[in-house]
Design brief:
Number of helices: 10
Mean pLDDT: 88
Protein name: Acid phosphatase
Number of strands: 5
Bound molecules: 2-acetamido-2-deoxy-beta-D-glucopyranose
Strand order of the largest sheet: 3-2-1-4-5
Strand content: 5-15%
Largest sheet: 5 strands, parallel
Family: Belongs to the APS1/VSP family.
GO molecular function, one term: acid phosphatase activity
InterPro entries: Acid_phosphat_B-like, Acid_phosphatase_pln, APS1/VSP, HAD-like_sf, HAD_sf
Organism: Centaurea solstitialis
Helix content: 40-55%
Length: about 260
């Protein structure tokens, strides 16, 4: 049961209880936006809501919610505060440090065939300026609007991932960028990346004509397979979506970056 399902379940439960007592017409009751606990337990509504939204976010991050379409309306302010506050940054930094420590711990071969895959959106480049104009995930994704933003080529870098990128490069690991962006965005994507400090990579793989309509998991798995067929050992993979990381031909280790704003199946 998702968060909303759970909310509805509790609402129905309380409706069922009050109905026993007063015989109320269910259809006439207003729909509660927050969970209705018995009053004795409702110490502080905003604290309860905060905890509920944290549960929703953690369930999303751990891939227990999949698939979900938009941020629950009750959690809009929560997600906004998370994205703009320091928590998001700390979460990204933690993952970046773990990944960097792992990369440094490896005994790399000297054939130059160790590779690290980076996703782009919400991994290396941040679309937060776009999402701050579109409700931080409250709105259903609009690909036309989003494309316009991408074509501006002004997405800021995600600093903790850039740090990992530089550490990985220094170790002599090849960088492969694998994105769901389409071929027609190659130039703007490369230019945007270079402008924010990602200057060197071995391959930039975008969705080509043959990849249209493929779910992200299938597209990225296929591309990883091709990378492996070229002789690369994919020792690490960084992405903000589970569909960047799971499937087949997976990396030795995958690192999931936080993203409570949207889910790509
Ligand atoms: C409820 O919790 C919030 C956040 O912790 C706090 O700002 C607010 O003052 C609290 N309200 C009450 C009535 O205790
Ligand atoms: C993008 O296109 C312009 C104009 O064709 C070209 O000068 C530039 O080198 C291209 N940039 C990249 C990163 O490919």
């Amino acid at each position: 049961m998702g968060f909303l399902g759970f909310t509805m379940f509790l609402c129905l439960l309380s409706v069922a209880r009050s109905q026993e007592a007063m015989d109320i017409d269910i259809d006439l009751l207003p729909r509660a936006l927050i969970i209705e606990y018995p009053e004795t337990r409702l110490k502080n509504t905003s604290e309860e809501l905060h905890m509920q939204c944290t549960s929703w976010r953690v369930a999303g991050e751990s891939n227990n919610l999949s698939p979900w379409r938009t941020v629950p309306v009750e959690c809009g302010d929560y997600v906004k505060a998370y994205m703009l506050g320091r928590s998001y940054y700390f979460d990204l930094e933690m993952v970046s440090k773990e990944a960097g420590g792992y990369a440094k711990s490896l005994q790399l071969k000297e054939d130059g065939m160790d590779a690290w895959i980076f996703d782009i959106d919400e991994t290396l480049l941040s679309n937060l300026p776009y999402y701050s104009d579109h409700g931080f995930g409250l709105e259903v994704f609009d690909s036309d609007q989003f494309d316009k933003w991408v074509l501006e080529g002004v997405a800021p870098v995600i600093e903790p991932t850039l740090k990992l990128y530089e550490d990985v490069l220094k170790l002599g690991i090849k960088i492969i960028l694998l994105t769901g962006r389409t071929e027609d965005k190659r130039n703007v994507t490369a230019t945007n990346l270079m402008n924010v400090g990602c200057r060197k990579w071995d391959q930039l793989i975008l969705r080509g004509d043959n990849d249209q309509g493929k779910p992200a998991i299938a597209f990225k798995s296929e591309k990883r397979k091709e990378i492996m067929m070229e002789g690369f050992r994919i020792i690490g993979n960084s992405g903000d979506q589970w569909s960047d990381l799971v499937g087949t031909s997976t990396a030795s280790r995958s690192f999931k970056l936080s993203n409570p704003m949207y889910h790509i199946p």
